[in-house]
Amino acid sequence: MVSELLVVIGSLCLTVALVEAWMLVAVVTAPDGWLAKKIPGTQDLLKSHIDYLMMSQFLFIFYMLFSHFKIKPAGFIIFCMCVGSFGNALLFLIRAMNPSLKDEMTVPFRLSMTLSCSMTTIGYISGAWLVANAAWVF
User: Largest CB tally within 10 Å, which of 6, 64, 73, 131?
Assistant: First the structure.
């Protein structure tokens, strides 16, 4: 039952990515518009969009792999995958709205980046090795 959270968070990531796609259209086509003023970091908005797309795919793929091989991953693996996947892209979005964070990263922002990237790494490496082990003995 815990693995289903991957699909829920994957769907959330995909939804945010699609909203961000429309935000990119608005920012690029109306560079003097209100949204462009709220989100001046277009490159970081694009990074967030791409990251949400990639993470939604990874979450969906791992759900299917876990289901196929009948793997029941530990809750902390699912937690790390979900929080890390959503958090990484969210940090790009925050930076898109606050470009000054690119040059002067605050300690809380830096810690958030480190924690999010670590969780993503731990979650996906753990998941990948669970799948590799299951495939090897399948």
Answer: 6
